[in-house]
């Protein structure tokens, strides 16, 4: 089937997802009603401001934040989760000496911001992961000289789907500020900002049927945050004219995802298990193995990483692409790297598995037919055995 013109099967929703029709319609309506600059004082500017502020409140409410009271939670619109993560770390640090801890499971934007804090003289360190993929807080120690203590964690690992126990992390971390990257969690896991007891929480709606080009940082009402890109917009925390239609689309996507979350998580879990079972069976039929990484740990419904020992992961993904199956070796932001995913290496897996690990991620457009067709197409690849040279053996 190599070179086939059959319709592509998209199993890379952890990278991005197609825009939902309801979101597209909401954006189109806001393009007309909210096209003006929301900082303009005239009637159309005030109308755009209302749409922007309403979107902000809708998102905070949908994600369990506090919308009333003196210290109600805040939401900063950014260009994406990368900028939101950066604003959280550098904004919490401000100009003081900050001790920052993170892990290899966290997005590269967190690692980059943490390293920047280190360049400023902060005390920064990488925490290990447990075999479950959760954060190992055992080696966590805070220097007495740090003005601020900041712990970063990821609610759902974008590589394995492992779900963090933030309550346990909070209990182990002691007196510190916690930043949570919830980018992969919003559509499939319960997210309550108040219950997480975090200082900040980042996500981007394009991971669950929302628009690209916008992200969100929830900020606890009593938390101090310094601007990284100064300007009068976003309460002085993020300069630049706000994209009102994208904010409206983001709010719509969040509400749709939260409303459908429980049922969608069950549906995606069934599809994920169908895919894992099918690929295990197909591999066994040709004398091979398909090893699901972190299979015995709490995982989000939509992500699975499967290793096919004896295959090269990049060659496998290339072969899958030729068969019309879109999957990945890891996060899209690191797709050009020839190295194994840091989150997998941090689990202490043998090189035989990390070298052969492929990520499949499902989403709101994925169907049973997609899964069955993907299994059928990938079965042929398993039989042909993608080799370690990056070529597909015939």
Describe this structure in words.
This protein has 2 domains: 9-17 and 261-384, Aspartate Aminotransferase, domain 1 (Alpha-Beta Complex); 21-256, Aspartate Aminotransferase, domain 2 (3-Layer(aba) Sandwich), CATH 3.40.640. It has 11 helices and 12 strands. The chain has helices at residues 21-33, 43-62, 81-93, 108-119, 166-173, 193-196, 244-285, 313-322, 342-345, 351-354, 368-384; strands spanning 9-10, 74-78, 98-103, 123-127, 148-154, 177-181, 200-203, 215-219, 291-292, 303-307, 325-326, 357-361. The chain has a 7-stranded mixed beta sheet with strand order 2-8-7-6-5-3-4, with helices on both faces. A 3-stranded antiparallel beta sheet has the order 9-10-12.
Short description:
By secondary structure, the protein is an alpha/beta fold. The protein is built from eleven helices and twelve strands. The longest helix is centred in the last third of the chain and has 42 residues, at 244-285.
Q: What's the SSE pattern?
A: EHHEHEHEEHEHEEHEEHEHHEH
Summarize model confidence as the mean pLDDT: 92
- Tell me the Rg in angstroms: 22 Å
- How many domains, in number, for the residues? 2
What's the CATH architecture name of the largest domain? 3-Layer(aba) Sandwich
Strand content: 5-15%
Helical proportion, percent range? 25-40%
What would you call the shape? globular
- Total number of helices: 11
Characterize the biggest β-sheet: 7 strands, mixed
Q: Stretches where pLDDT falls below 50 for ≥5 residues?
A: 388-394
User: What multimeric state do the chains show?
Assistant: single chain
Q: Which CATH top level class of the largest domain fits?
A: Alpha Beta
Distance between the termini: 13 Å
Question: Do you know the CATH topology of the largest domain?
Answer: Aspartate Aminotransferase, domain 2
Strand line-up of the largest beta sheet = 2-8-7-6-5-3-4
């Amino acid at each position: 089937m190599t070179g086939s013109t059959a319709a592509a099967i998209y199993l890379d929703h952890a990278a991005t997802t197609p825009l939902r029709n309801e979101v597209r319609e909401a954006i189109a309506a806001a393009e007309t009603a909210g096209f003006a600059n929301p900082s303009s004082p005239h009637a159309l500017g005030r109308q755009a401001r209302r749409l922007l502020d309403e979107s902000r409140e809708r998102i905070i409410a949908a994600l369990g934040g506090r919308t009333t009271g003196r210290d109600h939670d805040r939401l900063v619109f950014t260009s994406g989760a990368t900028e939101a993560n950066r604003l959280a770390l550098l904004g919490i640090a401000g100009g003081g000496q900050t001790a920052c801890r993170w892990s290899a499971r966290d997005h590269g934007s967190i690692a980059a911001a943490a390293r920047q804090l280190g360049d400023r003289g902060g005390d920064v360190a990488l925490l290990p992961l447990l075999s479950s993929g959760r954060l190992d807080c055992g080696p966590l120690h805070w220097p007495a000289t740090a003005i601020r203590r900041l712990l970063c964690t990821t609610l759902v690992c974008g590589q394995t789907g492992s779900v963090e126990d933030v309550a346990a992390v909070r209990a182990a971390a002691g007196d510190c500020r916690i930043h949570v990257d919830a980018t992969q969690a919003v559509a499939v896991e319960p997210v309550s900002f108040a219950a997480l007891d975090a200082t900040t929480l980042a996500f981007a709606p394009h991971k669950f049927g929302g628009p690209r080009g916008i992200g969100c940082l929830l900020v606890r009402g009593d938390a101090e945050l310094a601007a990284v890109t100064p300007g009068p917009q976003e309460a002085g925390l993020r300069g630049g004219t706000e994209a009102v239609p994208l904010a409206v689309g983001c709010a719509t996507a969040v509400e749709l995802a939260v409303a459908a979350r429980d049922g969608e998580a069950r549906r995606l879990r069934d599809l994920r298990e169908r895919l894992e079972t099918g690929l295990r069976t197909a591999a066994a039929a040709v004398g091979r193995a398909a090893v699901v990484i972190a299979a015995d740990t709490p995982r989000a419904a939509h992500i699975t990483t499967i290793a096919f020992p004896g295959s090269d992961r990049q060659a496998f993904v290339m072969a899958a692409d030729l068969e019309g199956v879109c999957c990945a070796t890891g996060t899209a932001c690191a797709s050009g790297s020839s190295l194994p995913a840091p989150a997998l290496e941090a689990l202490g897996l043998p090189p035989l598995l990390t070298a052969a690990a492929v990520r499949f991620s499902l989403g709101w457009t994925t169907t049973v037919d997609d899964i069955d067709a993907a299994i059928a197409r990938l079965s042929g690849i398993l039989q042909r055995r993608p080799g370690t040279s990056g070529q597909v053996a015939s």
